[in-house]
Amino acid sequence: MEALIQLGIFTFLLFAGFVFGRRAEKKHYRSIFEREDRFRHIVVTNEKVPSPEFIQHDFTMVAGNVVISVDYFKVVSAGLRSLVGGRISAYESLLDRARREAVLRMQEQAQAAGAQTVINTKFETSRVSGNAGQGIGSMEVLAYGTALIPRRA
Amino acid sequence: MTRLAQNPRIPEGINASEEHPLKEFALLFVGVALSLVLLVVILSVMAQQLAPYIPFRWEQQLTQFNGPTDAPWEDLSTDRDEPVAESADGTATADRAVESTTADAKHAAQAAEQILKQQAQESLQALVASLAVSMAIPSEMSFQLHLLDDPAPNAFATLGGHIFVTQGLLAAVSSENALAMVLAHEMAHVKFRHPIQAMSRGALLQLIITMVSGGQGVALNGVLGQTGLLTLLSFNRDMERESDAAAMAGLAQHYGHLAGADEFFSEVLARHGDAGWRAAFETHPGTQERVDAIAARMKLMRTNTETSQPLTPLAESLLAIKAQGEQDASP
C-alpha cells in the first residue's frame, strides 16, 4: 500500500513536472524569439579591444543574469540518461534558454544606457542547488559585457 | 572587416534539440526497464544457484543477535517482565497467587503461561529433532523453534533454521501428523536453503536499485525497494512444491504412512475455499493442489499398507497450550 502511494506521488510529480515544465518552456521560447527580434539592433560581440570608431564612446558594464529551475520530469529524464550516457537534451534546452535570456537582459540594460554595441561579452554559469545536491536544482547564467555609449555632442 | 549592423539570427536546434522530450523519455524508460529486468532475472538465477553453497554456519551467525534464546522477536511477541528462571515452579507460583493481590495473580498467570509456552516450544523442538532424522537433514543444520502468540494459523521458516509456529496453527491441528507435515515443510525449506536464496535475491535487487538510482530520485528508490522486497523475499511456487514433496517423504519415513498429513490444508480449504484466480499471483501452490498432491502420494503408498493407520496424538504440552488458547478465545 505504501509502495502504491509512493508510486502515485512519483507519477504525479513526473506528470506535473512535464505539463508545467513544458508549458513554461514553450512560453519562454516564444518570449525569447520575440525579444531577440526587438533587440537585434544592439550588437553583442566578444571582441576585447574596441575598434577605432568607438574611441570617443563612453563605456559601462552591463550584465544580465537569470536562474531557471529544473522540473521533476527533466530530473528523472536526465537520471535515466545518465545510466546510458549521451546528450541530456532535457538540460540542454534549459541552458539554451538561460543563456539567451541572460543576453537579452544584458541588451535591455545596454539599451537603457543608450548603447548600441556591447563588446567583450562573457558568460558564467553556476548551479543554484536546492538542497545539497539532492532533488530539484536550478541553474544560473550570468552574461556581462562592456556597453559602448556614443557621447552626446 | 566590417562590423555587423545587427545581431545575427542563429538557426534553432543547434544548442537545444527540438525533439519531443516524451519521445526520449519513453525510449530511455523502456530501455532501462528492460535491461534492469534482464539483470534482475540473471542475478536471481545466479543467487538461486550459488546461495546453497553459503555455509549454513554463516547463515546461523546472521541471525544470532544475543544468542539464540535472546532473539529480539521473542521480546516482541511476549510481554516478559520477569526472568523465567525466577518462577521455575509453575504450580507453586500459581498457588501463592490465589492469596495474593490481583496484580500478583496476573504476574503468576503470565509466568505460568510462559512456562506452558516454553514446554510447548520444547516439545515442538523434540518433534523437529525426530523428524530431522527421517528427513535426512545434514548434520550441520539445526533448528530453533519459536511459538508465536498469533491466533492466525501459520508457520514460516527464516534464515539460520529459525522456524516460527503460531498458536493458531496448534489450534487448527488435531494430530501430531498434521503438525509434523507443516513442520516438515518448513524444515525442508531450510534444508534446501530457500531462505538464504530469497535473501540473496532480495539483497542483490536492493544493490541494483541503489546502484541505478545512485541516491538520486528518493521516491523511485523507495518504490522499487518496497515492491522488490514484497515480491522477492518470499519463496516461489517451485520451492513450495519441492518442500511439500520432501515433507511427505519425511513423514512417510517417520510414521510409515501419510494419514492426517493433509488435515491442515483440508481445514484451510474448508474454511476459506481455494482462492481460484488469486492463486496465479500467490507464491504457494493452491491449497486444493496441495491436498491433491498429498492424496496422490497416499494412494501410492496404500498399495503396501492396506489398513488405515492410527494417528499419533499431539504431545501433552501442546495439547495444554491448545486448551489454553481455546479458553482465551471463549470468554
Number of helices of chain B: 13
The CATH homology group name of chain A: Hypothetical protein apc22750. Chain B
Sequence of strands across the biggest β-sheet of chain B: 1-3-2
Distance between the termini of chain A: 77 Å
Spans of chain B of at least 5 consecutive residues whose pLDDT stays below 50 are 66-94, 276-281
The strands making up the biggest β-sheet of chain A line up spatially as: 1-3-4-2
Low-confidence stretches of chain A: none
Rg from Cα of chain A: 20 Å
Tell me the span between the first and last alpha carbons of chain B: 104 Å
What does this structure look like?
The complex is a heterodimer of chains A (153) and B (331). Chain A is of the alpha+beta class and 153 residues long. Chain A has helices at 2-38, 72-84, 89-112, and strands spanning 43-44, 58-69, 117-128, 138-149. Chain A has one domain: Translation Initiation Factor IF3 (2-Layer Sandwich). Chain A has three helices and four strands, in the order αββααββ. Chain B is mainly α. Chain B has a domain at 102-329. Chain B is elongated and about 110 Å long. Chain B starts with 20 loop residues before the first helix and ends with a helix. The A-B interface holds A 2-3, 6-7, 9-10, 13, 18, 22, 36, 39-45, 51, 53, 73-77, 79-84, 87, 89-90, 92-93, 95-97, 99, 134-135 and B 3-7, 9, 15-17, 19, 21-22, 24-25, 28-29, 31-32, 212-220, 222-223, 226-227, 230.
Quick rundown:
The complex is a heterodimer of chains A (153) and B (331). By secondary structure, chain A is α+β, with helices and mostly antiparallel strands. Chain A has helices at 2-38, 72-84, 89-112, and strands at 43-44, 58-69, 117-128, 138-149.
